[in-house]
Amino acid sequence: MSDSDKTVTTAVHFIAESKLPMPMGTFTMAGFEEAETGKEHVALVFGDVSGDEPVLARIHSECLTGDALFSLRCDCGFQLQEALTRIAEEGRGILLYLRQEGRGIGLLNKIKAYNLQDQGADTVEANESLGFDADQREYSMCLPMLAHFGISKLRLMTNNPRKVAAMEKYGVEISVREPIQVGKNSHNADYLATKAGKLGHMMTPSEE
Questions:
Q1: Which of 22, 55, 134, 206 falls between 20 and 30 A from 111, CA-CA?
Q2: What are phi and psi of 103, to 5 degrees?
Q3: Are 162 and 181 spatial neighbours (Cβ–Cβ below 8 Å)?
Q4: What tens digit of pLDDT does each residue of 100-159 get?
Q5: Cβ–Cβ < 8 Å for 153, 176
Q6: Contact present, 89 and 47 (Cβ < 8 Å)
Q7: Is 81 exposed, middle or buried (0-12, 13-18, 19+ CB in 10 A)?
Q8: pLDDT at 4 over 50
Q9: In this structure, what DSSP letter does residue 5 have?
Q10: CA 53 to CA 194: how far, in whole Å?
Q11: Alpha-carbon gap, residue 140 to 11, rounded angstroms
Q12: Alpha carbon separation from 196 to 5, 84, 191 (Å, rounded)
């Protein structure tokens, strides 16, 4: 079910938190679990995010190939590192890491989609050939995760208009969208062009 079809937020329970030292700084890692599915999500928090000032934020869907295996087929890993670096430099912010591999189709289906892309399909065509929507992700779990920290206003690092619309639908104020354009290379040029041309991702310098 896509986010546009959701009318209620996903029930998510806070489980535990700990410190997580990383090269860019020490974050607090908070774990959450979806009540219905048992799916696990993580919030990475830096500094004091309380108060009324909008919080610098990134909503990042899991990408094993890009985030952990350094794939050049996408820009996900580059965006993850850039967002964490910006948050640490800001001294205050949050990154929600959502378990929605392959735009929500799962890792093994993502590999199948990659195979179709190797044969000439773009990312949208590959997902649709496998019987999925171009983007199956939804973001209703973000609301209780943000609410756990008392966050209701964001400066959201994204190029994806669906994330902005989803947050606003669930009552989270987006004070500004901050572009996050990193990692372009010869392997992902067509992928990025498809995101802009078919998925409406905003590749302009600023949307303030």
A1: 22
A2: 55, 35
A3: no
A4: 999 899 999 999 999 999 999 988 899 999 999 888 889 999 999 999 999 999 999 999
A5: no
A6: no
A7: middle
A8: no
A9: G
A10: 35
A11: 9
A12: 22, 24, 9
pLDDT (average), residues 33-53: 95
**Could you give the strand order of the β-sheet that contains 25-34, starting from the edge strand earlier in sequence?**
12-22, 25-34, 40-46, 93-98, 55-61, 153-157, 173-178
Q: How is residue 3 annotated by DSSP?
A: G
What positions carry a catalytic annotation? 135, 137
Inter-residue contact 32 to 145 (CB < 8 Å): yes
Helix (H) or strand (E) holding 10: none
**Whole-number Å distance between alpha carbons of 206 and 208:** 6
pTM for this predicted structure: 0.88
Q: Residue 37 class from Cβ within 10 Å (0-12 exposed, 13-18 middle, 19+ buried)?
A: exposed
